[in-house]
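FORM 12-B: Structure-to-Sequence Request
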């Protein structure tokens, strides 16, 4: 039997202090995103509603002010979170007038609710609070990722790979829910490896309220525990899922449709989105969603997609190799 500090045992912390290891990569994350936000906002004359990319396709004038930047066309997904943050409690009788898929969009309620709370319910402050929530999520997710790496004995610099990965970077600059969801998933896994399963279960349930594909994490941890006849741990991950399930039922009561009935295929073929975008970039196929064919920075974006997919595959391989830590 190996001694407690042998390499074959579960993850363990290095003897150096947590702060001594963390301060430099976390400082780079903070300074890097300060620069990214500055460059992003400068492109919109420092109007925080610019990165939301609000389109005029749907009549949502009730949420616009003189300062709201509205462009011609369909806009982007950040606008749905912006609109929901004005009405997080589903009080509007006609959400279909300002949301393309109301039940599906309201399922991702956590990010706009946090923005609404940070803005103290003040509509004028929502563009800034949407940005602030994601910046806080970047830092929190980086901290959780660093803690995971520390427990696995990995390099602290891999934290930067998480913080500046495409879903986090694009999520911040386009006001999307990925930074919030990913931060909660990372925090839930870090807590799970520390044996704090009840807290981890609650955190991961909140991640599902940010983005429903996060369901795979607590569901997998819960079923894995049950397969090992660890009922207490299994319940710790599965019972908190009553929270997002209850919210989906409430959406069905209010809107007459379950989010799953309106949602696109978010549980499709692995790397399906990356393959689709890469194919669009290199001309393997035409656009299927009506979006313009990209003509700028094609090589750079294709490289980012390939490298990101490779990192995911390598990371999953490492997790499988160290799956004993979840026992």
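FORM 12-B RESPONSE
SEQUENCE OUT:
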């Amino acid at each position: 039997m190996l001694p407690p500090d042998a390499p074959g045992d579960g993850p363990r912390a290095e003897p150096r202090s947590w702060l001594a290891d963390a301060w430099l990569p976390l400082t780079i994350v903070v300074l890097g995103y300060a620069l990214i936000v500055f460059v992003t906002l400068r492109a919109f004359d420092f109007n925080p509603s610019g990165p939301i990319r609000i389109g005029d396709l749907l009549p949502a004038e009730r949420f616009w002010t003189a300062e709201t930047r509205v462009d011609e066309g369909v806009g982007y997904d950040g606008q749905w979170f912006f609109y929901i943050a004005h009405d997080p409690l589903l009080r509007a009788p006609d959400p279909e007038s300002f949301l393309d898929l109301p039940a599906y969009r309201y399922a991702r309620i956590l990010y706009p609710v946090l923005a609404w709370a940070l803005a103290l319910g003040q509509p004028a402050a929502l563009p800034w609070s949407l940005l602030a929530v994601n910046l806080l999520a970047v830092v929190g997710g980086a901290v959780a990722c660093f803690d995971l790496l520390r427990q696995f004995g990995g390099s602290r610099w891999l934290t930067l790979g998480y913080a500046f990965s495409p879903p986090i970077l694009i999520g911040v600059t386009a006001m999307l829910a990925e930074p919030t969801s990913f931060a909660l998933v990372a925090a839930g896994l870090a807590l799970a490896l520390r044996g704090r399963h009840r807290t981890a279960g609650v955190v991961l349930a909140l991640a599902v309220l940010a983005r429903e594909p996060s369901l795979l994490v607590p569901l997998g941890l819960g079923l894995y525990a049950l397969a090992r006849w660890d009922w207490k741990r299994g319940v710790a991950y599965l019972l908190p899922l009553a929270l997002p399930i209850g919210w989906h039922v409430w959406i069905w009561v209010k809107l007459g449709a379950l989010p799953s009935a309106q949602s696109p295929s978010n549980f499709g073929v692995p790397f399906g989105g990356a393959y689709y975008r890469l194919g669009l970039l290199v001309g393997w196929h035409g656009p299927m969603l009506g979006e313009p064919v990209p003509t700028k920075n094609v090589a750079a974006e294709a490289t980012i997609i390939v490298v990101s997919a490779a990192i995911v595959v390598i990371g999953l391989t490492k997790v499988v190799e160290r799956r004993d830590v979840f026992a």
